[in-house]
TrEMBL record:
Keywords: Lyase, Metal-binding, Zinc
Family: Belongs to the beta-class carbonic anhydrase family.
TM stretches of this protein: none
GO molecular function: carbonate dehydratase activity
InterPro entries (UniProt xref): Carbonic_anhydrase, Carbonic_anhydrase_sf
Record-given protein name: carbonic anhydrase
Reactions it catalyzes: hydrogencarbonate + H(+) = CO2 + H2O
Lineage, top ranks: Bacteria, Bacillati, Bacillota, Bacilli, Bacillales
Top-level class of the enzyme under EC nomenclature: lyase
Organism: Paenibacillus eucommiae
Cofactor: Zn(2+)
EC number: 4.2.1.1
Length: 191
């Protein structure tokens, strides 16, 4: 049985048995927060449980490394929509130790593109169009650096209201321990 077949079979039972009722909520975050975090599989259940978040409590945006690669990209757009349209009043950027974006080898990743059939012509066309692989696939040397980068883009974004605090955290992807590295209420690093 294929992955899609298994998913559809389970989904049919889920709906028929009305298991969705335990998750009913509306589109507005009850805790008035939006979280930018990593797509790492270890955080799927750990992060909400470690923060005591239930379905409907927060808008959660996930991407590789919780990194904003550009101030006008889709992740930043989602943060702005969460603030202006969904009532989010605080932004949390949560990176984690052991992130795959830490020390990402862009050259090795481009080699993997090629080994899966992406031609040099495509890569060269992208480069000639202004898409720089080292920027597009930007990683970081430490999780703290990655979080600080994203927090800086959000705090300094020309469309972000100045009364919305942005905080930066690092999570231990095994224990769920959360360390505050940048506090958005006017201070920076906690004492």
């Amino acid at each position: 049985m294929s992955v899609v077949s298994e998913l559809l079979k389970f989904n049919q039972q889920f709906v028929e048995q009305k298991q969705y009722q335990a998750y009913l909520t509306d589109k507005f975050p009850d805790k008035k927060m939006v979280i930018l975090t990593c797509m790492d599989t270890r955080l799927v259940e750990l992060l909400p449980k470690a923060l005591n978040l239930r379905n409907g409590d927060a808008k959660i945006i996930k991407n590789a490394g919780a990194i904003l690669t550009q101030p006008f990209g889709s992740a930043m757009r989602s943060i702005l929509v969460a603030v202006y349209e969904m009532g989010a009043q605080e932004v949390l950027v949560i990176g984690h130790h052991g992130c795959g974006m830490s020390n990402l080898d862009t050259g090795a990743l481009v080699d993997k593109f090629k080994s899966r059939g992406i031609s040099d012509t495509v890569l060269s066309t992208l480069e000639n169009s202004g898409i720089r692989m080292e920027r597009f696939l930007r990683g970081f040397t430490s999780a703290e650096e990655g979080v600080a980068h994203s927090v800086g883009i959000i705090r300094n974004h020309p469309l972000m209201p100045t009364d919305v605090p942005t905080h930066g955290f690092i999570m231990d992807s095994e224990t769920g321990r959360l360390d505050l590295i940048s506090e958005g209420y006017g201070g920076d690093v906690p004492s």
